[in-house]
Amino acid sequence: MSDTSRPTTEVTLLGKPYVIACPPEEQDQLKRSARYLDRAMHGIHSRGKVLGAEKIAIMAALNITHELLTALDSHRAGEQSLSDLSERLERALSKAGEPGRQTP
């Protein structure tokens, strides 16, 4: 399949359209991602401290990456907490099943 026959989707970032190669089954997710990025870029642009679109995009990418890493760290901490709780539960259940122990 040549590049000209690949399915594409148009997204808009800071008022500028971009045509992105994207399989049809991923277009909704691409559009959702573009809306999120566009909002982040508009937020940075509205502060007026950064002028160039490239710098705005880089700052937005850094902010979104920070959000992602914070969420991943939180998710991992939650998984570890569940793992610890599961181990405690397994130990408690194995102790409850030991001979000589009464279960209520």
Automatic annotation (TrEMBL):
Predominant place of localization: cytoplasm
CC terms in the record's Gene Ontology section: cell division site; cell septum; cytosol
Keywords of this entry: Cell cycle, Cell division, Coiled coil, Cytoplasm, Septation
For this entry, list what GO says about its biological process: division septum assembly; FtsZ-dependent cytokinesis; septin ring assembly
Q: Where is this region: Disordered?
A: 77-104
Localization recorded for this chain is: Cytoplasm
Protein task: Activator of cell division through the inhibition of FtsZ GTPase activity, therefore promoting FtsZ assembly into bundles of protofilaments necessary for the formation of the division Z ring. It is recruited early at mid-cell but it is not essential for cell division.
On subunit structure and binding partners, the annotation says: Homodimer. Interacts with FtsZ.
- Give the family from UniProt: Belongs to the ZapA family. Type 1 subfamily.
Q: What is this protein called?
A: Cell division protein ZapA
UniProt organism field:
Salinicola corii
